[in-house]
UniProtKB/TrEMBL annotation:
The keyword Cytoplasm does not apply. Its main location: membrane. It is found in: Membrane. This is Long-chain-fatty-acid--CoA ligase. It comes from Pseudomonas lundensis.
Length: 563
């Protein structure tokens, strides 16, 4: 694709380029924003709000402690394993100010997954929630983690609320299993010891790694994507240019239900919104819908970042539908394909259209998005500024516009490579900096792109390619379907046959015959499923992405093709 193809594809007023070297590192951005917006709210959670000035002070206390009370050195890795709490941005920004590399860790990880990630990253410190400390107790001795900082959910609230909430979580809800970590240090003690102490803010070059973001857990062993200061700053400026083009500085309220340890929420809320001084309302447990809706009712929110499964769940909630959406002007979707029926319903309920974007951990993550000025539902929009895309065939040759092939991405947000895995890096990135996404896409003549599907999830029926996303979109339009997934299972006759899994909405009924008739009415014969299985639930990742691979592995086991 000739370089200039995208230049004229941006809406008026949106620049086709950003300067990824506008700031030398994240420390500089943070300092500047916290000074500019010192009195503005930065993060809220559990009824408490901290301003940008307080965020700088608290992250400084954390950094000072790390510098004065530990032997951790710039470049050492610290694993941060927290849900969406105020402690998260404090720990992350504090660690970055001390020059450490943040290893974002999912709090729902099993001991096995934690051990792999801590050992792979060589983490020397861990910040975790008391609720997970029993797992840390098991894992830490098998790793190089030397310092463990433990926090309880309500640690940053007023003394009364803190004692009350922490006691309820511990003694009433029994959510904190007993643990024994005699050398662990309490997060609040860290902050009080570091309070008012001098901080030597690290000043790393932009090419240094800032975050290790693990990925690929759904396809096999997780790999750490090395995201540099320059990668994250570039993506922060790209998000601001294209996703936040209608957001003003220092006055917007954004709902943050997606976990901050996930790169999408991390870059958008902790980076792009920090740059423009906006207010992020942290939702600690989005699975508790009533509590989430109650929290939403307290705010005149102007931005909402979610994904398909969450939009469905909220629109099905009567209490949600009654909320005041008059201030809402940006809804962003990412992480999984947005279904047309869901986008339409969200717009009908809230009055705000959804801008779907696309990205991967390896691109920090945002690679493309629908500009709010010109949304094409069903596409992933156009590349964010300073980003090029192309599609290639199996031989690696670039294909013309409108042809189906693997999407490749090139831009300043593309990772440095996988941590200590040069072979895996070479598989996905070429010498010119093009990253192979593993997704099958089409680039339209107008520059908008459509993902047809994951390369790996494609089903092959009698030589025809069938893409599960398409089947799931059709199933989603059948009344009564809450969730669905389509997979291919080996078949002597056709190579693969299609099996679909469906979760029915509570209080509704569906028969196999109804599903089959609906599918046959909407799809060519070879795309129609041969088997329908109803389930109470489907396996999902912690952000709600349905794990087709897991369903397929189950089927292969049944056939004796997989151990």
């Amino acid at each position: 694709m000739f370089e200039g193809f995208w230049k004229d594809k941006y809406p008026a007023g949106i620049a086709a380029e950003i300067n990824p070297d506008e700031y030398p590192n994240i420390q500089t951005v943070l300092k500047q924003s916290c000074q500019r917006f010192a009195d503005k709210p930065a993060f809220s959670n559990l009824g408490k709000t901290i301003t940008y000035g307080e965020l700088y002070e608290l992250s400084g206390a954390f950094a000072a402690y790390l510098q004065q009370h530990t032997d951790l050195q710039p470049g050492d890795r610290i694993a941060v394993q927290l849900p969406n709490l105020l402690q998260y941005p404090i720990a992350v920004f504090g660690a970055i100010r001390a020059g450490l590399i943040v290893v974002n860790t999912n709090p729902l990880y099993t001991a096995r997954e934690m051990e792999h990630q801590f050992n792979d990253s060589g983490a020397k410190a861990l910040v975790c929630l008391a609720n997970m400390a029993h797992l840390a107790e098991k894992v830490v001795p098998q790793t190089s983690v030397k310092y463990v900082f433990i926090t309880e959910v309500a640690d940053l609230l007023s003394p009364f609320k803190r004692v009350l909430i922490n006691s309820v979580i511990k003694y009433v809800k029994k959510m904190v299993p007993a643990y024994h970590l005699p050398n662990a240090i309490k997060f609040n003690d860290v902050l009080s010891k570091g309070h008012g102490q001098p901080v030597r803010d690290a000043n790393p070059p932009s090419s240094d790694v800032a975050v290790l973001q693990y990925t690929g857990g759904t396809t096999g062993v997780a790999k750490g994507a090395m995201l540099t200061h320059r990668n994250l700053i570039a993506n922060m400026l790209q998000c601001k240019a294209l996703m936040g083009s209608n957001l003003n500085e220092g006055c917007e309220i954004l709902i943050t239900p997606l976990p901050l340890y996930h790169i999408y929420a991390f870059t958008f809320h902790c980076m792009a919104m920090m740059l423009i001084g906006n207010h992020n309302v942290l939702i600690s447990n989005p699975r508790d819908l009533p509590a989430m809706v109650k929290e939403l009712s307290k705010w005149k929110f102007s931005g909402f970042v979610g994904l398909n499964t969450l939009f469905v769940a909220l629109c099905n909630s009567e209490a949600f539908r009654k909320l005041d959406f008059s201030a809402l002007k940006v809804t962003l979707s990412g992480g999984m394909a947005l279904q047309l029926s869901v986008a339409e319903r969200w717009k009908a309920v809230t009055g705000c259209p959804i801008c779907e974007g696309y990205g991967m951990t390896e691109t920090s993550p945002v690679a493309s998005v629908n500009p709010i000025q010109n949304i094409q539902v069903g596409t992933i929009g156009i590349p964010v500024p300073s980003t090029l895309c192309k599609v290639i065939n199996d031989a690696g040759e670039e294909l013309p516009l409108g042809e189906v092939g693997e999407l490749c991405i090139k831009g300043p947000q593309v990772m440095k490579g996988y941590w200590e895995r040069p072979d895996a890096t070479d598989e996905i990135m070429d010498s010119e900096g093009w990253l192979k996404s593993g997704d099958i896409a089409i680039i339209q003549p107008d520059g908008y792109m459509r993902i047809v599907d994951r390369k790996k999830d494609m089903i092959l029926v009698s030589g025809f390619n069938v893409y599960p996303n398409e089947l799931e979109d059709v199933m989603a339009s059948l009344p009564g379907v809450l969730q669905s997934a389509a997979i291919g299972i080996p078949d002597e006759k056709t190579g693969e046959l299609i099996k679909v899994f469906i979760v029915v909405k509570p209080g509704m009924t569906l028969t196999k015959e109804q599903v089959m008739a609906h599918m046959r009415a909407n799809l060519t014969a070879y795309k129609a499923p041969k088997i329908v299985e109803f389930r109470d639930s489907l396996p999902t990742t912690n952000v709600g992405k349905i794990l087709r691979r897991e369903l397929r592995d189950e089927e292969l086991k049944k056939l004796g093709l997989k151990k």
